[in-house]
Design goal:
Length: about 260
């Protein structure tokens, strides 16, 4: 069918999203880190919790190693700024609300980018989407079963401290491809468990800033969520898998997500 190989094709034939897991185990990709910014200890523990639940319930879990999110965040951020932030300011002017300080530099008013530059960004985004789609299709090579969805961080931290949001690639890439996603609550940061790793060696400057922003006492009790991601047009599938995982989490903790 066209949607088996074309990233932009609509999946007109929908599976029974609420019953697809009844006759076989789910196959879930697990994205521990994007290799650019490492998740804080509470997020890592949240990933470990969901990973353990999937294994305990006999679902298949595979390592997710897609095309680098470095390309996705570069292209998506360029799209956000393409009109010179004029639309952002137009919306803000309706209420008189100012830009929050962390966004004032990125979304200062400027001239829109040239049309040919925008066209080139479109082609780069399309190429990334196709490469990601091809990678997803390759997940059936070993056992004949495609990955149903991917579990990954929403961000490299729990509920963020204002002014210390340094990395958005975990959602930028999903937004660029218009993939389906849902976020489920998994746990809360615990200062007695999620201790700061003083021996961690940052991967780059952004990773260093993000890692040094983690303070176990400050983050204690902050909610940790993870996103469940499927491909474009697969909202029903994401919703069904999110319900499966959310129910498993509640059963694990007798109704208390901690």
């Amino acid at each position: 069918m066209p949607w088996d190989s074309e990233a932009e094709a609509s999946t007109l034939a929908r599976a029974d999203a609420c019953g697809f897991a009844k006759d076989r185990p789910l196959k879930i990709g697990f994205y521990w880190t994007d290799g650019m910014v490492t998740p804080h200890p509470p997020v890592k523990r949240g990933l470990q919790i969901v990973h353990g639940i999937l294994q305990d319930t006999k679902h298949k879990v595979v390592v997710w190693d897609p095309p680098s999110q470095k390309t996705a965040i570069r292209v998506h951020v360029a799209f956000l700024k393409a009109d010179g932030a004029h639309d952002v300011h137009k919306q803000l002017d309706l209420s008189g609300e100012p830009l929050i300080p962390p966004l004032q530099g990125a979304f200062r008013l400027r001239d829109p980018i040239p049309l040919l530059e925008y066209q080139d960004l479109t082609l780069q985004g399309k190429a990334y989407n196709e490469a990601y789609y091809d990678y997803w299709n390759s997940t059936s090579n070993d056992d004949g079963q495609l990955v149903d969805a991917v579990v990954m961080p929403v961000a490299p931290h729990a509920a963020v401290i204002p002014g210390k949001f340094y990395e958005a690639a975990y959602t930028e890439s999903i937004n660029l491809m218009d993939y389906s996603a849902a976020v489920i609550p998994v746990t809360r940061a615990d200062k007695l468990v999620d201790v700061f790793d003083h021996g961690y060696q940052p991967l780059n400057e952004v990773d260093r800033k993000n890692w040094e922003a983690y303070d176990a006492d400050t983050y204690d009790g902050a909610p940790v969520g993870l996103q469940i991601v499927a491909r474009k047009w697969e909202e029903e599938k994401v919703w069904a898998i999110a319900k499966i995982l959310d129910t498993a989490l509640k059963n694990r903790s007798e109704g208390i997500v901690r």
